[in-house]
UniProtKB/TrEMBL annotation:
Residues 211-376 form the PCI domain. This is Eukaryotic translation initiation factor 3 subunit M. The keyword Transferase does not apply. InterPro entries: COPS7/eIF3m (IPR045237), eIF3m (IPR027528), eIF3m_C_helix (IPR040750), PCI_dom (IPR000717). PANTHER family: COP9 SIGNALOSOME COMPLEX SUBUNIT 7/DENDRITIC CELL PROTEIN GA17, EUKARYOTIC TRANSLATION INITIATION FACTOR 3 SUBUNIT M. Keywords: Cytoplasm, Initiation factor, Protein biosynthesis.
Amino acid sequence: MSTHKQTCVVVGQDDKEPIANAARFVYTIAHGGDYQKDWKEDDESTTTKKTAKEAEKHAEECSKLPMDCQLIGKLLENNDKLFSDAKAQDVETVFIIAATVAERFEVETERKKAFDMIAEKAMESATSKVESRSRILMQLYNLASDLETKFKLFCRIIEYVKKANMEHVVGTLVGHVEESMEEWKQMNNNNGSERNVYLEIANLLSGMGGKEEKAMEFMLKYLATFENSESALGESSAAAKDAIASFIRLKTSFSCDLLDYKAIQALKSSNGKVFELLEIFLTKDVSDYLAFAKSNGAVLKDLGLNEEETLTKMRLMSLGGIRNGGGEVSYKEICDKLKIDSKECEEWVVRGISSGLVDAKLDQVREVCIITRATQRVFGRDQWSELKNSLSNWSENLQSMKTLLSTSEDISTISAL
């Protein structure tokens, strides 16, 4: 076997020639030949001639096969040797030829089956030639014209990226999901399966350092797809639990609208304790959390929550809820609400300020905290409605003031006359 990487030339003049060139190349590589050497006319080596003759015979057989999956299987039957002994560019060229051939299959079922077969071949290893394999999958996606096939190939890409730990590709996938989701929803046999892409992307991001907020964003996109699919709510249970756990673990998020989601509300009947935990975080205090944790340690463990970190989050969220509209609050009240020692009060307020949870000043002489802004723990439909009404009233007041000023100017003008 030759130790150097082989080079494939697959330029053809008709429909069959690229197939023959690819088949000849793959066969030569698989049987230890040298593709360049085997086609030199002055080489008299018996072994070389034998390999060349057999490769030519194989190429002819492939060229005569019908345009169906049998041809694809024949072209890629030595897939493992191809990846190990040929240059990445040439491997990708062979796969492009196979995909181009598949795209021209007249029978739709054969075409879809062929693309699936090619993807399977590309995904056979998650440790060897992963960059080349991922490029092949992306090329398959670009070559496919059928929307359903493209969607399935994209799911394959996500699967492979996850299996091969290709974090640097995730950003590209995230952008493409956001661009293509509306199109995927238009698939003729759409059954809601496109929502699973949101979930897979969320899972990918959650395994990456520093991407927790983005992961949460995609998890919420997933849960939102059940708003008009109540019959499918049973599918959302595990993801709804994960979303709650993710929110509680997030160290940079202290407000959410999770309680508005039907998938979350459905947990009341299917997983009441998890729903109760979310309600505590969003509407109650540290004392309620401590009582819950004391009798429901198994729930916290099942959610993968660290008790100390969870208590820290609960204390910060309770701090933000003490004076939502701003105002003074005594050190004693803060200590009572957060269940902390008086010596820790200022430290917790500083933590709240540094996390962006509150804007506040400490008056150490009077032992009061003056809060000028606090993050609202629940910001859902009701809060948006209140904000809309406030903005509407503000706009009306501005208009009234404008009218009043205009009238005053008119009166002043008349008086001057």
